[in-house]
Amino acid sequence: MRRFERKQNIFRNKDALGESYQPDQIEERDEEIEEYMDALQPVVDGWEPNNIFLYGNTGVGKTAVTDYLLDRLQDDVADYDDVDLSVISVNCKTLNSSYQVAVELVNKLRPAGGEISSTGYPQQTVFKKLYGELEAIGGTILIVLDEVDSIGDRDELLYELPRARANNNLDSTKVGVIGISNDFKFRDQLDPRVQDTLCERELQFPPYDAPELENILESRAEIAIAEGAVEQGVLNFCAALAARDSGSARQALDLLRLAGEIAENREADLIERDHVEAARSRLEQERVEEGMRELTTHGRLALLAVISKAAKDETPSRTREIYEEYTALCDSSGTDSLAQRSVHNHLSDLRMLGILSAYENRSGSRGNYYSYELDVPFTSAIEAMSDVLRLESEIETIREIASMNNVA
Ligand SMILES: Nc1ncnc2c1ncn2[C@@H]1O[C@H](COP(=O)(O)OP(=O)(O)OP(=O)(O)O)[C@@H](O)[C@H]1O
């Protein structure tokens, strides 16, 4: 067995490309920062804070900009004796009601040992406890609710918190809520009264384009990667790939980090385009596998049917043709097949997951029909399939057909 040896020729500080790293500098968000600062101004002036709602796709800097600005705000208000600011942040991802979020807030504010249980109280009792804690802190309190859409339609807290002073639940404490979401539908689904208050100031974060992503990558690479360890054009390539797909800085950073790890494992002295290609296909495969883990056996078989069509170079393929392929796969795996309509639903789900793309075709008097093709590289899809489906010989045959047809 080989020994563990330190490898440090590629990375200087790999953590700076990781999720938990908080950048000292925010690139390419000057306009959003200006608007955000305006929305936070009442805090500095000693008035009641605005409630702010931030939305935009995943990885576009909503959390990074919020953390950065709230740190700044806390530093800057320290100059004013009459402003006493506290910030409480909660990620609501695993909390899917107002009740659970309120319990989490209470427990964050209470000293260790004083936490309350997450079940068993009437909702208003938990809200009262929360008001008690907020009142005990006093001053101005900003409550950041990241991934606030997880709260779903049980959104009473979002109605109550901003009105707590008006309703005499708080006396001296001034509370502002900052809600962050990447679910565009969430805002519209909110009770109109909640919309009015929570969305007092709305900030939208658009996806990044390629030059913006390249700047973000450059400033992060300076900290994370050893001098001279990135080949010319590599950052530009990572940025272009992420811009084309999602416009997410997270995706661009992940790509660079993984490319660096691959370069390191191959004992290369610098990160090259090939390493980025390999990183891209590995990340894509992970995304497909993640999507597939959620699928039922029939969802997987429906996907394998499309993969098989792709191997024959017959995609985009109509639902009826995919269905024939699917029933054949069911037969060989000894699984009872579903009706065509159910398979069609599975294909739509796969489209929602970004694994397939669909086209609607018009066919005159017979109405419209859909055809599907893979929206991920063939190799990623088949690799991921061989990890989750026990159909070795069928998968091997599909691989052979693909290689005969030069499908990759
Ligand atoms: N403008 C920027 N400058 C520097 N780093 C950035 C910028 N935007 C995003 N990042 C980095 O990209 C990663 C993802 O950003 P962030 O977590 O803020 O996205 P988000 O919009 O909150 O996404 P999600 O909705 O998935 O939580 C983080 O590592 C963050 O530091």
UniProtKB/TrEMBL annotation:
UniProt-annotated binding residues for ATP: V60, G61, K62, T63, A64, Y208, R220
Positions of the AAA+ ATPase domain: 48-203
Cited Gene3D superfamilies: 1.10.8.60, P-loop containing nucleotide triphosphate hydrolases (3.40.50.300), Winged helix-like DNA-binding domain superfamily/Winged helix DNA-binding domain (1.10.10.10)
The protein's name in its UniProt record: ORC1-type DNA replication protein
Residue ranges crossing the lipid bilayer per the database entry: none
Residue ranges of domain Cdc6 C-terminal in the record: 303-385
InterPro entries referenced in this protein's UniProt entry, alphabetically: AAA+_ATPase, AAA_22, Cdc6_C, Cdc6_lid, ORC1/CDC6, Orc1/Cdc6_arc, P-loop_NTPase, WH-like_DNA-bd_sf
Organism: Natrinema pellirubrum (strain DSM 15624 / CIP 106293 / JCM 10476 / NCIMB 786 / 157)
CDD domains for the chain: AAA, Cdc6_C
Keyword hit for Nucleus: no
GO BP annotation list: cell division; DNA replication
Function: Involved in regulation of DNA replication.
